[in-house]
Amino acid sequence: MLKAISLAFIVAASAASTLSADEIRLVGGDVLKGTVVSETDTAVTIDHAALGRIEISRDRIAEVIKTTPAPTPAPAPAAVVVEGATPAPAPAVPVAVLPAPVPPPPPAPDGSWKFSLSLGFTGSETESQSNWDLRAAGSATRESEKDRTTIAAEYYFSSANSVNTDNNLLVTGLEEFLFKDSKWEAFIKGTYQYDEFQTWEQRAGLYAGPAYRLFEGEPLALKLRAGAGASYEFADSQWTPELLLGDDLVWKIDERSKLTQGLDFFPDLENLGEYRFIVRIDYEIALSPKGDLKGTAGVRDEYDSYVEPTGDSSNDLKIYAGLKVDF
Predict the structure, then answer these.
(1) Contact 58/44 with Cβ under 8 angstroms?
(2) pLDDT reported for residue 96
(3) What is the full DSSP assignment across 126-188?
(4) What are the pLDDT digits (tens) for 1-22?
(5) Quick one: pLDDT band at residue 265, thresholds 50, 70, 90?
(6) For the chain, is the Cβ count within 10 Å smaller at the N or the C terminus?
(7) Rounded distance, CA 320 to CA 122, Å?
(8) Which of helix, strand or coil describes residue 16?
């Protein structure tokens, strides 16, 4: 009779202990029940009835639910000391460690092409005036472990009262040669531009040189490049030797949005003090769950220090917004 009462008491005590156990809910949905014995900013240690003592990284924990008071260590029994003998050290409690998950490495570039198209359109029509503005842009990129290719085109058209005020096309091609385990690159860049309202009307350029990735990864990546080449203006068949100094900046603001900035600066090597540049800032935010549809807004400014006596403007500022599709 006494043995039955003792067994019932042990079972009841065990059940009560399980019901009042602390819980650690893991990110994947699993739950560990036991007694939390310590907590730090980076890990939580729990005594589990079957698994023993486990130290769990905070990165794996979704929630900690504590229902039991902090354990009070039981007094150790008095040790029998034999004169001249070295006391045995207290046995250490073995601890299993559940570290933070290691993110998988990014996939290696396979050389496949990726494309994007963007479009912005505004207009107004009244009895006294009519205004229309269009911006269309597209790009194609591919990357392998040895090189990266980018081809981009951008077109602007504006009219006011049926008179064209802007008709501008800019096409760029960039081939970047990558060196294994190095931040250095080499590049070849070609440009073609058509502008109905400039005296040169059509201009092409070709440049080459080194580039260096000053920062890379997320959230900030910055690349600098310096090269030399020449531009050619079709209307007057004029060659102009130039330097090319530039940068590419990418700031990933969060999982949905990023800001990019690019600069191409062309100093004239024959006429010191003369130069031209194209600078742009673009912002985009994902509008679809997959991120393939985006809203975009940006500014592009083109400046040429040499102004013809005919009155052509040396500065061409464009502000735009629209939608972008990646595929």
Answers:
(1) yes
(2) 81
(3) -SS-EEEEEEEEEEEEEE-SSEEEEEEEEEEEEEETTEEEEEEEEEEEEEEEE-TT-SEEEEE
(4) 444 444 444 444 444 444 568 8
(5) very high
(6) N
(7) 10
(8) helix
The alpha carbons of the chain give a radius of gyration, in whole angstroms, of: 34
CB hemisphere CA count around 295 (13 angstroms): 5
For residue 123, what are the CA distances in angstroms to 120, 132, 135, 299?
A: 11, 4, 12, 19
Enumerate the β-bridge partners of residue 301: 279, 317
pLDDT tens figures, 299-326 = 999 999 875 545 556 788 999 999 999 9
Q: In Å, how far are 164, 198, 199 from 309, measured between CA atoms?
A: 22, 12, 10
**Domain residue ranges of the chain, discontinuous segments joined by +:** 2-71+92-98, 113-326
Structure tokens at 100: 């933070």
Please tell me the pTM assigned to this model.
Answer: 0.69
Give residue 9's pLDDT. 43
What tokens were used for 6?
Answer: 């003792």
181: left (phi over 0), alpha (psi -120 to 50) or beta: left
| Average pLDDT of the segment spanning 234-259 | 93
CATH class of 113-326: mainly beta
Count CA atoms closer than 13 A to 215's CA, side-chain side: 11
**What secondary structure letter does DSSP report for 197?**
T
Measured CA to CA, the distance from residue 282 to residue 251 in angstroms comes to 11
Look up the CATH architecture of domain 2-71+92-98: Roll (2.30)
45 and 53 in contact (C-beta within 8 Å)? yes
